[in-house]
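User: Predict the complex with GLP.
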Amino acid sequence: EVLIAANAEEAATFAAEAVLHGLASRKTGNPVLGVATGSTPLGLYSELAQRVARGEADFSSASAYALDEYVGLEGTHEQSYRQTLITELCQVIGVKEENLHTPNGFGDSEEQIIAQAAAYDAQLTEAGVDVQILGIGTNGHIGFNEPGSSLGSRTRIKRLTGQTRADNARFFDGLDAVPTHSVTQGLGSILQARRLVLIATGSQKADAVATALEGALSAACPASVVQLHPDVVVVLDEAAASNL
Ligand code: GLP
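Assistant: Here is the predicted structure with GLP placed in the model:
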């Protein structure tokens, strides 16, 4: 389902509806939300916070699983996705910090980080994500699955492309400070979620969105993997939808 909103604010409302409906269809146990970082989902988190304030939603018993984390940053580092999500998600919609799960990209050796990635993937599979929120990179990545990622991949270390590092440099003190690698859920891991909600706003995403939704299913555009999923809601503003 592709929903085209008039603007980013309306896109946040559509996305919130899609997320809450997806969570409501859970039959037993506490809700499990798959969460993304980046600028795009901030409107959604703020919309969900308003619903919490109005008593229409409650995330106090929910758990959240992040898509990805930078390699080499401890979970306490200001630019780590763990800290970002504590500030932008937990403190906004009320997911408890102890219920926020993030990949651990920090360790003494590559082997240790690889083992941590596999353990995270197993934990994620065990939890069963109800709704996975996704943004999209300008090169078509989801999570940090850069072009060329295997469509069946699991949580693992991925090298970041120059474009992704440049896109994310605004959060760091310059390009040199941006880590070169990440630990990211694989495309196969992401597909396990019961529902995917992919959000894209702004003209800079228009090419990636058109390729993902109307192009061939291909590792060249990792987001095209959503074509395989039976329950996907894509929420766009008019600018992001302009090449469809
Ligand atoms: C990062 C994240 C992605 C996110 C992308 C787009 O690379 N790993 O999960 O979708 O940025 O970010 P933004 O929403 O800021 O454009």
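The longest strand covers residues 195-200.
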